[in-house]
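Troubleshooting log. The previous run stalled partway through. Resubmitting the same two chains, unchanged.
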Amino acid sequence: MIEDARPRKILRTLGLIAIVIAFVFPVYWLLSFSFKPERLFFDLPPVWTFDPIVTEWVNTFRTLKLWETIINSIIVAGGSTLLTILVGTPASYSLARLRVRGKTDIMLFIIASRMAPAVALIIPFFLIYQFLDLLDSHIGLIFAYSTFNMALYVWLLTVMTRELPADLEGVAEADGYHPFQVFLRIGLPLMRPSIIAVGVLAFIFAWNEFPFALLLGGRTTETLPVVAARSLSAGGVEWARLAVISTVMVIPVAVMVFFLHKQIVRGLSMGAVRG
Amino acid sequence: MATQGIAAALAPRGRWAEFLQRYLPYLLIAPALILLILVGVIPFAYAIYLSLHNTFFTDVESFAGIANYKDLVSDPRFWGALRVTTIVTVVAIPIQLVMALGLALLFYRGVFGGRVLSPLLLFPSVLAPIVMAIMWKIMLAGNWGILSYWVVERFSLVTGGVFGSPSPAIGTVIAIDIFQWVPFLTLAFYAGLQALPLAPFRAAAVDGASRWQVLRLLTIPMLYPLIAVLFLLRFIDTFKIFDSVFILTRGGPGDSTTTISYYLFRSVFEFWEIGRAAAAAVIVFVLFFVMTSIVYRVFHKRLRLI
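Second attempt completed without errors. Output:
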């Protein structure tokens, strides 16, 4: 709005850098703990420099069979994302492009379904899953994750699709294409970038999810957050192990943020911001 | 023309095509709605059913009427949990919104390398709340955590660690929520500022408006829809705060950080009072919808959501 003198701009940039460092430093500190020799953890004052070791990484992967946990996390988060995309994409297209009676009510129902606290939902879920024998199953978790991901996905994709130009679809319709073909052959390709962006966000939410995984999962479906939480109960906290597991959880999120940060900002604000 | 041939070959024909043409919008939505009903409406209805019954572990026994609700209303721990949740929400959200808006305004006035720094700034907000809590746990641990050593002990802020007494424990839970969300909110406000039209600001500059006037009378009112959306989203998430409490305090010391989600968790998975927990869940659902629709009504026209 107002052009400003250069020195001030430099000052502000320094301020920004300081803030970024403040927010990112804890992640660095966490990372450093996964490479730090355990005997240095408790030194006073806290130690900054040391020769990094990978002992704890090797140990954690070996004793906790962390690969199995990672695979569980990928199955559950990936499966949830896939289910969400398959079921949510047609709905979003329809809500954004076609004439649907009660559209506002449907949209409100969708966003309302994202509001309930997970733990409140878990009570009925637990009993229903016990009855259906879905406790400690990947498919059970994948379904349960729809409680937050479906609403997020349909909502965002609808908002984003509405902003895409509809000219092509109009032309195709005028040429006598069946609406279903218009959806498959023109709508879908047009929506693809948005589908990827919102899908990534759904993946991150599923990857990070804790209460459902803790309470509806079990030994065979343990995801990374659950294993992390378990490393700090009973018999003292295993700090290095915690740091390793947390770092593993951070990696895919970091990669996705790097490539898609604008879409993620947009997604986290449910489409209210253009990012 | 080739594509048209393919399209024609794929085209639905006859009655089926007519049916499809007519109901396509609803057919496309149906799977999503069915899924949402399966994972949202049915569990909610089942929670109501459970709340009206006596339960023994996971067995549903006789009809109990509103006994569970009566028990709940007379349970001071339930009210305590509501109180803690309200404190966290009421303190954390305004602070993070104001901080983020301040930072966004600062950056909006111009910085070098904003592009490089914004993904870094987003990063903390998309970390798993579990990871965020673990980071803080390491930094605040014992007397050797970097924050406990350099900040808490140095300035003798609290004795016995931040998780040793109620107020510092709640304060830390709040601080972590703020820390996690300020970066994203800053970016959201920053993007919102960039999307504002310039003309009103030029006019204000011509009229010789002070910075404060511009902020109060122009910038903030124009950002209102965005503020409303972000407030609503943060409200929804903060109210169900669970992960950081689970990792950091386990609801303690005493019940001082037992939020409503943690209360629900304990009533089911520690005390196995499913009927009563279901009653609490129902009350929370209702409370939630009422509060959200109040927030929604207040901002009604200003929400850019629909």
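Takeaways: The CA atoms of residues 101 and 115 of chain A lie 24 Å apart. Chain A has two domains: 1-53, 63-268.
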